[in-house]
Amino acid sequence: MGSTRTEAPAGDLVLHRPTVPARQLVLLFHGVGASPEGFEPLGPALAREDRWVVAVRAPFESGFGAGWQWFPVQGVTEANRAERIAAVMPRFAETVRRWQAHTRLGAAQTVLAGFSQGAIMSLESTQVGAPLAARVVAMSGRFAVPPQTAPAGVAFRFIHGEQDPVIPAAFSAQGAQQLQALGADARVDLLPGLGHGIDPRALALLVRALDFAANG
Q1: Res. 33: pLDDT tops 50
Q2: Integer Cα distance of 128 and 131 in angstroms
Q3: β-pairing verdict for 60-61 and 68-69
Q4: pLDDT digit string (tens) for 44-100?
Q5: Is there a catalytic annotation at residue 185?
Q6: How remote is the C-alpha of 93 from its chain's centroid?
Q7: For the chain, how far is it from start to end, CA to CA, in angstroms?
Q8: Which of 160, 164, 172, 189 is catalytic?
Q9: How many CB atoms lie within 10 A of CB 171?
Q10: Rounded to an integer, what distance in angstroms lies between the CA atom of residue 21 and that of residue 166?
Q11: pLDDT at residue 145 above 80?
Q12: Full-prediction pTM beyond 0.85?
């Protein structure tokens, strides 16, 4: 029988292909108004010989006139954010599963690492259906609503700048605490002086989280 290898989603950017049999799939999800190319500077630090590193493009053009988004943020409120996320979550899950099929790696070998809106989508994916990944790294993100479940086998890492003017760091601290109360493996690192971005400290924490997942 011939191979039925699934085609990779269009628009995504492969930052690193494994040079030995792959043991890990890292999917990076950008923020609203951004693009996969924004993750290119991180590629060398995240590369490992047994790891796929893929920057995923959100499916819709951003309302800011540049870049891409999973859901619109114009007019978003605490009341309607969750429904906007729920509307696009099936497409998010499909994207993850298509990359898993393409790389022949399952949820146990997958890490979802998101920044801002990408972190929101990654976190919220753990609250519906079967887990898509064994680890979620949320950078400058948040849950839309407090988590209600701690999926078995899923570890959470929050990385957030204490001076973030877009998504307050308190959301990451609260999310980690709420997950811990539910019995999850959840940790948070709040970085003094960092705003809404990824600096060398945040990148080092991301690398550590990925390496721990790969070796765990």
Answers
A1: yes
A2: 8
A3: antiparallel
A4: 999 999 999 999 999 999 977 789 999 988 888 888 999 999 999 999 999 999 999
A5: no
A6: 12
A7: 34
A8: 164
A9: 21
A10: 40
A11: yes
A12: yes
Token representation of residue 170: 């308190």
Query: Amino acid identity, residue 107?
Result: A
DSSP letters spanning the chain: ----PPPPPTT-EEEE--SSS--EEEEEE--TTB-GGGGGGGHHHH--TTEEEEEEPPSEE-TTSSSEESS--TT--TTTHHHHHHHHHHHHHHHHHHHHHHHT--GGGEEEEEETHHHHHHHHGGGSSS-S-SEEEEES---SS------TT-EEEEEEETT-SSS-THHHHHHHHHHHHTT-EEEEEEETT--SS--HHHHHHHHHHHHHHHH-
Catalytic choice (35, 116, 140, 172):
116
Q: Does residue 164 have an active-site annotation?
A: yes
Mean pLDDT of 129-138: 96
Phi (first) and psi of residue 179, to 5 degrees? -65, -40
